[in-house]
Design brief:
247 residues; alpha/beta; Rossmann fold; seven-stranded mixed sheet; 8 helices; 43% helix; globular; transferase; methyltransferase; SAM-dependent_MTases_sf; Class I SAM-dependent methyltransferase; Methyltranfer_dom
Length: 247
């Protein structure tokens, strides 16, 4: 009986996530293209290169790719990128940007908790601001572990968004200025639903990663200070962390 309730709740959350990002896909893509052409590109790349193996041609999976920011960033460095997202509209925007930017990457509509790939397929998995939206994070980490090759690495940038403090006033040109009241309400509802079924992060992530079998877990809670060193249109007021774990 309990399992049935949890399953329906998980499905409800995923539907809400899909609806929310469908409504934001086009404006979000515009923002990511601007970010890709700004100083933020180098900042994100520097953080990723700290953990990625030092060779070209890595097979990398971007989980919750959105409109493809990490895919384009890393494909331009000579890697083989695959991006997945639960929201079809996001994937369509990513495919259009791939053609416009002339940066090849493969994109699929898939559930981040259960990507449909063979085990031991990827040298690295990257993800940004996605794990907090997953109703079964334990399952996701276990699945991602199985998708990595031996000695492969997971790199997760995220924040404890369900427990974030009241946001400070941001610049008028900030990305969030375009979010409608309906979208804000959907975001707050999502946090309310996810908070009771999660634990404080990133401590919880470390526990789940160890349980999934990961080793050499590195936690960096100052990454946000480096990436968001000034308040601009890309600024994230919620503290973020980076967590890298090796199979």
């Amino acid at each position: 009986m309990t399992y049935g309730y949890e399953k329906s709740l998980n499905e409800k959350i995923k539907e809400e996530v899909t609806d929310y990002w469908t409504s934001r896909a086009e404006s979000f893509n515009e923002l990511k293209i601007q970010e890709l052409n700004s100083d933020m590109r180098g900042r994100w790349l520097n953080e990723l290169l700290k953990y990625l193996p030092d060779r070209k041609g890595l097979k990398i999976l971007d989980v919750g790719t959105g409109t493809g920011f990490f895919c384009f960033l890393l494909a331009a460095e000579g890697h083989d990128l695959t991006g997945i997202d639960l929201t079809e509209k996001m994937i369509l925007e990513a495919e259009k940007s791939s053609a416009t930017l002339e940066i090849p990457a493969k994109f699929y509509v898939m559930d981040a908790e259960n990507p449909d790939f063979e085990d031991n397929s990827f040298d690295a998995i990257v993800t940004r601001n996605v794990a907090w939206t997953l109703p079964d994070l334990k399952r996701a980490y276990e699945k991602w572990y199985s998708l990595l090759k031996n000695d492969g690495v997971l790199i997760n940038f995220d924040g404890d968004y369900t427990r974030e403090k009241e946001q400070q006033k941001l610049l008028e040109n900030h990305a969030h200025a375009k979010i409608t009241q309906v979208q804000w309400s959907a975001y707050e509802r999502l946090k309310t639903e996810l908070c009771p079924i999660s634990n404080p992060r990133p401590d919880w992530d470390v526990q789940l990663l160890k349980s999934a079998g990961f080793k050499e877990i590195i936690l960096d809670q100052q990454v946000g200070d480096r990436i968001y060193s000034e308040i601009n249109q890309f600024y994230n007021p919620t503290p973020i962390f980076a967590i890298a774990a090796r199979k």
